[in-house]
Amino acid sequence: MPGRTEKFIYERNVARFRIAYPYEYQKYTEWNSKKAKFSIEEVETYTKKTAIKAVFPDERQYMLQSIYGEDDYINDAVDSLGKLGNRCPIFIVGLPAIEEARKIIKKCHEECIVLIYEPSIEVLDYYLKNVDITDLFGILPVSLYFEGLSGDKLLDRVASLFTLETISLFRQFVSPNYENICGEEVLKASRILKEAFHKVMSMWLTAARFTDVAGNNMLYNLRSLIDGYNVSELFGMLKNEIPVILVSAGPSLNKNIDDLKKAKGKAFIIAVDTAIKPLLNHGIKPDLFCIVDGKKPTALMDHPGIHEIPLVTSLVVASGIMDLHKGKKFFYACDELIEKEIFDRCRKETGCKKNLYPAHIPTGGSVANSAFSLAHYMGAKEIILVGQDLALTGGKTHADGTFKDKMKKITAEEAAGTFYVDGIHGNKVLTRDDFDVYRRWFEAYIEDEKLKNVIDATQGGAKIKGTKIMALKAAIEKYCTKKCDIQGKIDALPKMLDYSAKRALIDVYESLPEKMSEVRKMAHKGVSLYKKFGKLASAENPDEKELKKCAAKLKTVNDFMNDDNFALFVQSNMVNIDYIMRMSIYEEDEDEVEERIKIARHGQSFNSIIELYAAHLYFNTKEIVKKRKLKATKADIGGPLDKFLYELSKEA
Amino acid sequence: MDNMREEFETLIELINVKNYKAVDEVLKDYLKDISNYIMFLAGNGIIAIEELNTLSEHMTTAIKNKDYFLLKDVLQYGLLNVYDQLFPREESVKEEE
Predict the structure, then answer these.
(1) Which of A371, A491, A625, B74 is the most exposed place for a label (fewest CB within 10 A)?
(2) Residues A177, A180, A181, A187: is their CA dihedral positive or negative?
(3) Inter-chain touch B65–A60, beta carbons under 8 Å
(4) In what order do the strands lie in the sheet with A50-55?
């Protein structure tokens, strides 16, 4: 009996839907079918199966599945996607393409990642009631996103679909006539795909831009850890009692910079690196300043007053600035494996582990994003933004007194690719891609953390959703009313490393050349083994036993390259080359012999490059360790354990 | 009848490249031929009268709603498929020989 079957299908579907997507299921139950924009009707196909169409109240109708083609249509549709590589990411719009999805998954032997985006609740409702889709809820490698039910996370979901290795294998399929029944949503999906692609490539290009810059900076900056502090010591320091004024270097800073003098002693002032010189030149001393950039010019911070201001930094920032700044440094995690290695070793040796866990400060890419996270991390009562234009106010990128005493307006070439967004005064302001990404980060952060205490006192620039707009004078009068002295607390904070931890740091530091040499030797071994593997594979009658032996030895090399922190450090400094290698990593050859030869060639090239880089880093670290010696002296001794270890080291 | 394959393929290709304006233009010229062809199929018992009605209905619906997916479905899988069976392409005939 049809009624009974439909009820059975519905109950089974809903049972799985509820478990796999509880949030979406809840939203689905709240959906009022009376508000449906169209209805789904069934049409008998050529072979008496069922296809569906969407029918609108004005009698327009669109087929969503094939009537005559059926399996042939589905096969042709799947074939039109071309060769489907291992781990290929597939984006499908519309549940009517469910059979195509099943065929694709079968073709890939379930080694693919499928995201099905269903923009229409009407279609979802039909499928839940009439078609067994239980395999979509946790059995097949499919994830589902429903417009109107899944929140506003489509970009994140799409971006997580692919990585640099799989981006070239990406395929998409839109169910028939979806541009007619859900035109807006299909356009949105197309836009989001472009954005997600751009996000992945952008991350990679940023990494490429900083190829070996981050690595070199880290090696040069390691010595700063010895007298450093951990940013975790600042956590919650402001106890939601003290407002933070976050000073950025947008062009509008010049308009109200002097108003900041009224806030001194009544607010905690955090500056971004580029704002430090204009502030000091105006006689305003911030309480902290932040840096994130690995390539920032040293001249930006060249001011005699800079050493008095504690710096919040990481190991990968520009080494010139780290050397220039002689004051207190608070370190946040940079997620480099050598940093992890050092902290692990320090914790092992020390009696005081408390401040030896790398602390993360979320960032959106700009130093202002990091400083904002820091303000929240410290427990700011309010966060008042100054100089946060995120726009080309007056045609300039930054305030006067930053990169130049008088900043020039952007050129016609620089203006290409700019566009308009909403300004804080209800006007439209000109901005560019990177500023817009940072702005959207602020907005997402404010929304995710449900912040109600962010005031935008920037005198111009783009509107940041979620902030209250207020003149700086008024904001200071309203929020900066009580005297506060945090400097005393900061001055009293202990350094991160005690004597034992410093010894551990020195051990790791001094062992760097030896570690790089080890990586170089292993890579050299890899080159020889891959050469041998290639020779064996291309022989007329390959010796399978020898091939197996060779593969086992290669596994040791590859395991080392994938697990050893120093080997991974070397590879992370090869981003440009790594990009080319990784793009082709999942492209398979159908011929087994050709596939083996390709693996051998690829492996040989890759290990040759690792060998080269490791050799370069060996000489580099040898020079650094020799010229920038680290010492743990009597002055570093704290408690009795430190004293004992110091005496021991003297004897050694 | 000789040009039917070319006409079907032209329309299908235009739909594939989403040149719907051209589809509408070309369809005006080919519609009579397509109708004659459908009548030929029914008249010679290749398709039943009910199928003739269904085909015509789907064609009309597709044209009325500008449902190019349905139109292509009818042309490619409903009509061209049958045509290829009745009048195999020369290359495939040679292969069979």
Answers:
(1) A491
(2) positive
(3) yes
(4) A39-44, A50-55, A61-63
Among chain B residues, CA nearest to A177: B69
In a domain, B73, yes or no: yes
* Coil, strand or helix at A162: coil
Residues of A in contact with B81 (CB under 8 A): 68, 72
ipTM: 0.89
User: What's the pLDDT score for residue A377?
Assistant: 96
Rounded Cα distance between A253 and A468, Å, is 18
Interchain CB distance below 8 Å, A63 and B69: yes
Nearest CA in chain B to A176: B69
> Within a domain: residue B56?
yes
B76 contacts in chain A (CB < 8 Å): 68-69
Q: Which chain A positions have a beta carbon within 8 Å of B73's beta carbon?
A: 63, 66-69, 73
Tokens, residue A590: 């159908």
**Residue contact B69–A177, C-beta within 8 A:** yes
Whole-number pLDDT of residue A209:
64
Whether A353 and A220 have beta carbons less than 8 Å apart is answered as no
Provide the 3-class DSSP secondary structure of residue A477.
helix
Scanning B61-80 for CB atoms below 8 A from A yields: 61, 65, 67, 69-70, 73-74, 76-78
| Contact (CB, 8 A) for B81 and B5 | no
Whether B17 maps to a domain, the answer reads no
Q: Mean of the pLDDT values across residues B51-66?
A: 90
| Nearest CA distance, B73 vs chain A (angstrom) | 6
Q: Do A63 and B76 touch (CB under 8 A)?
A: no
For the range A439-446, what are the long-range contacts, defined as Cβ-Cβ under 8 Å and sequence gap of 24 or more?
A439/A390, A439/A464, A440/A364, A441/A364, A441/A365, A441/A366, A441/A369, A442/A364, A442/A369, A442/A372, A442/A390, A442/A466, A442/A467, A445/A362, A445/A364, A445/A369, A445/A372, A445/A373, A445/A376
Where on the phi/psi map is residue A637: left (φ > 0), alpha (ψ -120 to 50), or beta?
beta
Q: Assign 3-class secondary structure to A33-97.
A: HHHCCCEEEEEECCCCCEEEEEECCCCCEEECCCCCCCHHHHHHHHHCCCCCCCCEEEEEECHHH
Cβ-proximal residues to B15 (8 Å cutoff; 6+ apart), any chain: B23, B68, B69, B71, B72
Cα four-point dihedral sign A342, A345, A349, A353: positive
Q: Which residue from A minimizes the CA distance to B70?
A: A63
0.90 exceeded by the pTM? no
The pair of structure tokens assigned to A163 is: 């990585």
What are residue A584's DSSP bridge partners?
none
Phi and psi dihedrals of A54, rounded to 5? -100, 130
Which stretches of chain A drop beneath a pLDDT of 50?
1-2
Domain extent, residue B60, equals: 36-87
- Overall number of domains in chain B: 1
Q: Write down the pLDDT at residue A474.
A: 95
Neighbouring C-alpha atoms within 13 Å toward the C-beta of A633: 5
Structure tokens at B44: 């010679």
Q: How far apart are CA B79 and CA A613, in angstroms?
A: 63
Does A61 sit within 8 Å of B77, measured CB to CB?
no
pLDDT at B43: 84
Q: What is the mean pLDDT of chain B?
A: 86
Residue A61 and residue B67: Cβ atoms within 8 Å? yes
At A386 the three-state DSSP class reads strand
- List, as one string, the DSSP characters of A358-384: ------SSSHHHHHHHHHHHTT-S-EE
C-beta atoms of A66 and B67 within 8 A: no
At A437, list the tokens: 């990404």
Q: Scanning the structure block, which residue is given the tokens 């059926």? A: A70
Residue B70 lies in a domain: yes
Q: Are A258 and A278 in contact (CB under 8 A)?
A: no
